Amino acid sequence: MPCPALPDGFDFTDPDVYQSRVPLPEFAQLRRTAPVWWNAQPHGIAGFGDDGYWVVTRHQDVKEVSTKPEIFSASLNTSIIRFNAAMTRDQIDVQKLIMLNMDPPEHTRVRQIVQRGFTPRSIRALEDALRHRAEQIVAEARRKGSGDFVTDVACELPLQAIAELIGIPQDDRARIFDWSNKMVAYDDPELAITEEVGLNAATELISYAMNLAAVRKECPAKDIVSQLVAAEDEGNLGSDEFGFFVLLLAVAGNETTRNAITHGMHAFLTHPDQWELYKRERPGTAAEEIVRWATPVVSFQRTATQDTELGGAEINKGQRVGIFYSSANNDPEVFDHPEVFDITRDPNPHLGFGGGGPHFCLGKSLAVLEINLIFGAIADAMPGISLAGDPRRLRSAWLNGVKELQVHYG
Ligand code: HEM
């Protein structure tokens, strides 16, 4: 469907498009004029098809794509890890071992196993340790007087949470953190992390996790690794499956939560009424609004398994379909004044954790716990925190990321 509102050559997969603003005004134009729009890209673009991809912008359509895996397959890559012309066939095949890139029934089997590690009880069991960590992180930042909120505060808790959850020994955590960070920031030249460095870090992390699984299988401990790999049969993960699961956690649970926390802090400091309200009442609705506002994952993609119709558009079998959470979360058909940061927003049916299908974020409860713990600790220990500069954005088309946010810890 032609969209005269968008200039020729406009490309939603170009990281530079997101440099100054997310959500893009272009999303609002598309929701109004061409909610499912074909973005032609004749030369092939990282993560998307060779001749273009559909851009799905309305809340209802993003949900529909997410909840119909038989029509919109995840198995041809959902682009959480870069997928482009430079990748070898082997590297593409390897990505199919990651659950995010699987369809039912294979996905259902893996999801049922790993869910055992994410029960409300397992998440509650982490709460005291993570509260303690959050308080330590905030106390250390406060001693500095001022600094970069991203490195001082937002980075640490998500990685510690994953390490605690899996049961990674303390001595190994620095290495895990280093590999995780290298894997997620490849698109930003300032961070000087090449694709090769990112892929090497992924390989090292996978072999570390496979080794940990083998050790725990021999000698079980009271941790999730031991639970998930107990015996190699249909009801457990093989060591290689466990390796790819840890890889996914390190990518999916790390930068996402870090950016929710950073955007949340920035939103509070630019909306002082909301920060005052938070400090006074700590509303239980705040974390969900922070995730809606931040929408750390801009988009994922699916591939049509058959010819189908969506939002008035005719989609052909084999075409790529980009689902843009950051547009859906600002859809005025669903959210009153989506441009307003309102921590009491209720209901808040945002799609920041996905559109409710089989791949809906496995770590949502953990992420919400982390957000609550860190802002609780900040409100207690440094209620006078203030901005010392504008955020510096990460160059990325799929992550709404901030790489630096200077603040005074008050
Ligand atoms: C999947 C967002 C935190 C683990 C997803 C998806 C999104 C998402 C959009 C894809 C949903 C879909 O395709 O329908 C977020 C955001 C987070 C966050 C915004 C933080 C604010 C976490 C954490 C973990 C985690 C803390 C674990 C430690 C996963 C996993 C999947 C996933 C394993 C794949 C699930 C599957 O394929 O079945 N997340 N996530 N996420 N997330 Fe999260």
Q: State the strand order across the main sheet.
A: 1-2-8-5-3
Tell me the Rg in angstroms: 21 Å
H/I helix tally: 16
Bound molecules: protoporphyrin IX containing FE
Order of helices and strands: HEEHEHHHEHHHHHHHHHEEEEHHEEEE
* N- and C-termini, Cα separation: 52 Å
> What is the total tally of β strands?
12
Mean pLDDT across the residues is: 88
Helix-strand makeup class:
alpha+beta
Which residues sit in consecutive blocks of at least 5 with pLDDT less than 50? 80-86
Q: What general outline do the C-alpha atoms trace? A: globular
Explain this structure.
- By secondary structure, this protein is α+β, with helices and mostly antiparallel strands.
- Helix content is 46%, strand content 10%.
- It is built from 16 helices and twelve strands.
- It has a five-stranded mixed β-sheet with strand order 1-2-8-5-3. It has a three-stranded antiparallel β-sheet with strand order 4-12-9.
- β6 (308-310) and β7 form a beta hairpin.
- α8 packs antiparallel against α9 (195-218).
- The longest helix has 25 residues, at 120-144.
- The radius of gyration is 21 Å and the shape is globular.
- It starts with 24 loop residues before the first helix and ends with a strand.
- Residues 80-86 have low confidence and may be disordered.
- It binds protoporphyrin IX containing FE.
- Residues 66, 99-100, 111, 162, 248-249, 252-253, 256-257, 260, 291, 296-297, 300, 325, 352-355, 357, 359-363, 366-367 line the site of protoporphyrin IX containing FE.
- Protoporphyrin IX containing FE binds at residues 66, 99-100, 111, 162, 248-249, 252-253, 256-257, 260, 291, 296-297, 300, 325, 352-355, 357, 359-363, 366-367.
